[in-house]
Amino acid sequence: MRYLVLVGALTLGAACAGNSTGVEGGVLAKGTWGGNDAGVIITDMVTHVHIGCTNGDFPARVPVVEQGRFR
């Protein structure tokens, strides 16, 4: 379940990114994106994801591979 929440939130972040691809130097672009009860905050040091009362942090930015996909 947490994996699905994470994938959904990261997809939301990439889709709402300030540039056309959501990619900046091979990683998801820095910024804050979201909507009602969901959000992604990406800084130089951490990627924070939250949906409802579920949340999590990554110690780095999320790498992006071909066609803007991530793992």
SSE order and pairing:
Blueprint: H1 2-15, E1 23-24, E2 27-28, E3 31-35, E4 38-42, E5 47-51, E6 54-58
Antiparallel strand pairs: 1-2, 3-4, 4-5, 5-6
Describe this entry's structure for a reader.
The protein contains one helix and six strands; from the N terminus they run αββββββ. With 71 residues, it is an alpha+beta fold. The strands form two sheets. The protein has a four-stranded antiparallel β-sheet, covered by helices on one side.
Structural class of the helices, strands and pairings? Answer: alpha+beta
Q: Name the shape in a single word.
A: globular
* Strand line-up in the sheet with most strands: 3-4-5-6
Percent of residues in β-strands? 25-35%
Helix run count: 1
- Alpha-carbon Rg, integer: 11 Å
Low-confidence stretches: 16-20
Largest sheet: 4 strands, antiparallel
Mean pLDDT: 75
- CA-CA gap between termini: 16 Å
Q: In summary, what is this structure?
A:
This protein is α+β, with helices and mostly antiparallel strands.
Descriptive key words:
single chain; 71 residues; alpha+beta; four-stranded antiparallel β-sheet; two-stranded antiparallel sheet; 1 helix; 6 strands; globular
